[in-house]
Amino acid sequence: MQSNKLSILEHRQVSVRYWHMVVSAQGLTEQIRPGQFFNILCGNRALPFLRRPFSIYRINREEETIEFLYLVQGAGTREMTNMKVGESIDLLGPFGIGFTLDEQWETVLLLARGVGIATLAALAQEAVAQGKQCIAILSARSRNDLLAADTLQGLGVDVLKVTEEDGNSDVTQVEELIMDILDKRKIDAGFTCGSKRLSRLMQKVSINNGFPAQVALEEHMACAMGACFACVCDIREGDAIKSVRICTEGPVFDLSKVVMA
Amino acid sequence: MNMRSRNLEVKIGNLALANPIMPASGAFGVEMNQAMDFNRLGALVPKSITKYPRGGNPTPRVCEVTSGMINSIGIQSKGIDYYIKEAIPEYAQYPVPLISSISGDTVEEFVEMCQIIGNHPDVDAIELNISCPNLEHDGKAFGMDPDISYDLIKRAKQVTDVPLIAKLTPNVRSIQEIAIACENAGADALTVANTFLAMAIDIHTMKPKIGNIMGGISGPAVKPMIVRMIYQVYQSVDIPIIGCGGVMNPEDAIEMMVAGATAVQVGTASFINPNSMIEIIEGIEAYMIDKEIDDINELIGRFHADGTPNLCV
């Protein structure tokens, strides 16, 4: 963890609800892992008052930049859209435990919903860079919100899109989609982010089909560094249930251990 | 002139602090050593410990409000055995006084914990979080009742020699009444104060923004009320006051000292800038140089010394 004031290189609205930001991250990119996050100061005022945690959308180690794809949702993200190219942004991080990619895994399945797509996009790049086959089911309210789809396709990821707009994003429909994939291909690991319902689905499917899965969880945070105990979740360890901090022990967890509320 | 050394040392009972700045319990953990140098703090105040492990409250446990935040963490704690085995040694490696914050469900539990923690060689003082709910009195906080506060402090004083600091709740009719009860019982200092009971509702979901419905508000939103309470308590008791509530910068800390605080705790500010406490210490020093103040003790209660009339409010 370190306190960083990084220069904004690009910042633009990419759809009705989403913005994309590229920041210069010299000397920082080597240590960042997909699934980790930064706690960003969106404005220094009465409201937004607290920082906001943002997962990393892209780690560009060649250009030494990091990218965020964020949904404009409340006071913090609304304020963030006012930041201009050339200004600096105050980020604390990287925080947390990121995703694990086993060398043995050949094919991985990503199941992402909404802004969770951004979190899994960073992982997809890493998986592709390691020569793994990557299948991604991207779910969103509208086609407009599937903006990372083209980028992921460009990387060679097999992208399957489901939306409310197209009426094919029900959990049962997504389950059928996953079962179709499992009929045709051997999945070595699953990853999910952005939806409790889809996380529950991935938990069930991964356990039933005997492959490991990881989830990146989200929660309201204050300190993001393990001091305040605001962002907790329950983890099953043997017969015991343990309360852990998402910011420190996570945000990525072994999905089979997560007690889905 | 500017090279002359300035005294920032203050005393809480018989405990000397190198400077008046310390964390507010609940907003501090060992993890924060990544962001600041603990050696520079006046004291270390870890999160409140309970006798037995407890899980804490449902999420969301925090929510943002204008100029502050509401929290209802529920004192998630690993219990006193873990605290002694793991937490105290972690903090003891710093040459800074360790003030253990304790929280109990009953008066008896507070006394038992004071006996154990208060006789540990690495613990320099105890802050009793009497703002937490008293399970023997329908969940009403100990610190809402002067008689219970008196009884609790009196009994705790009998089992340990380290300074005892009572952390008062601001959610009372008269904080002076509780302050006097604690002083009469032998408290060595008072923390003024814990968070104010608060609530926020999401108008889109019609749900509370805090899992526990109500929580405590902290941050700059509460600071003027805390300054007022420090001012009132200072007039009522002779023991040192530790100001706590919404300090974001050196000016806020100085203001509390001028109102009557001997030391100042910083909580919420550390969530936004984890190096806040160090910057506040540096800012106080700069202020002293600028104002040609040699000894920080000259600032404590300065407002009263200047002959301001004691108006009835």
UniProtKB/TrEMBL annotation, chain A:
GO molecular function, a single term: flavin adenine dinucleotide binding
UniProt cross-references to PROSITE patterns, sorted A to Z: FAD_FR
Organism listed in the record: Bhargavaea cecembensis DSE10
Essential cofactor(s): [2Fe-2S] cluster; FAD
Cofactor detail note: Binds 1 [2Fe-2S] cluster per subunit.
Record-given protein name: Dihydrdoorotate oxidase B, electron transfer subunit
A Pfam entry, by short name: DHODB_Fe-S_bind
PANTHER family tied to this protein: DIHYDROOROTATE DEHYDROGENASE B (NAD(+)), ELECTRON TRANSFER SUBUNIT, DIHYDROOROTATE DEHYDROGENASE B (NAD(+)), ELECTRON TRANSFER SUBUNIT-RELATED
Lineage: Bacteria, Bacillati, Bacillota, Bacilli, Bacillales
TrEMBL record, chain B:
Single GO cellular component term: cytoplasm
Co-factor binding details: Binds 1 FMN per subunit.
Keywords: Cytoplasm, Flavoprotein, FMN, Oxidoreductase, Pyrimidine biosynthesis
Pathway: Pyrimidine metabolism; UMP biosynthesis via de novo pathway; orotate from (S)-dihydroorotate (NAD(+) route): step 1/1
Binding site for substrate: 47, 71-75, 129, 194-195
Positions with a binding annotation for FMN: 25, 47-48, 129, 167, 219, 245-246, 267-268
Subcellular location, record wording: Cytoplasm
UniProt subunit comment: Heterotetramer of 2 PyrK and 2 PyrD type B subunits. Homodimer.
Similarity remark: Belongs to the dihydroorotate dehydrogenase family. Type 1 subfamily.
Protein name: Dihydroorotate dehydrogenase
